[in-house]
Amino acid sequence: MEILKTRAQLASRLSAFRDADKLIGLVPTMGALHNGHLSLVNEARKHTDIVVCSIFVNPTQFNDPTDLERYPRPIENDIEKLTPLCDVLFMPEVSEMYASGEQWHIDLGRLEYLLEGRFRPGHYQGVTQIVKKLFDAVQPDKAFFGQKDFQQFKIIDSMVKQLHLPVELVMCPIIRESDGLAMSSRNVHLSPAEHQQALALSKTLLFVQQNFENRSIAELNKSALEMLNRSEGVELDYFQICDADTLDVVNEKTSKHVIALLAARVGNTRLIDNIILQ
Length: 278
Ligand code: PAF
Fold this sequence. Notes:
alpha/beta, Rossmann fold, Pantoate--beta-alanine Ligase, Chain: A,domain 2, 6-stranded parallel sheet, 3-stranded antiparallel sheet, 10 helices, 20% strand, globular
């Protein structure tokens, strides 16, 4: 695996692959890699010839400076995990990706303000800003993202369509611990007791999925909120059953695709999770 730190190095390395008609796959990450990330890399390996992974803790998508500061950065471990799986690791400094005072805005419509957008203002502007820069730098044929950040996937998809970017987006399933907790770089912040408390999130989503056929949306919402609100240590930001195409809340089972999404704080750690219902 080659480790490159500048866009110029990346462009010259990748142009040789492109000239040889190799399909390039990109897995953008912020590091602190877990099996969820590695499943994206493995998926990229299956579908493309050259796998590029990026590790960049993107400051513009953090609306909470403490969250940015606390974000785990176990870089030596990450390199060790990627070495057998990846062809190129792109690991730029902040100054390589951003000029000072740089501005960015893209109209993401309602999607930007729903769910995560209500709790993390500006987050998706930061995400689209860096993902566009990574797409420009790598020019991947395919880019791989996790279902855990479902809203992020929809937002990036909207940007790709709006700007006619020549990249195919691939969404990969959520990878869970054996006890059900969705893998996340932030899980390292959970104490063993908080980890146990956080299981209420996946248990609730599983309950909703298992009862989706037999109960109304109102009943499912009521039971899910009861389960989450009575879970010790869990401070809920939202639980919503949504149309998976628009992310609008649904009250009836009339949508073709339906998803339940939630976010909650457990101790000082904010977690998100979701499950596809239909
Ligand atoms: O999902 C993430 O890890 C980040 O939001 C991404 C897509 C790498 C952009 O910084």
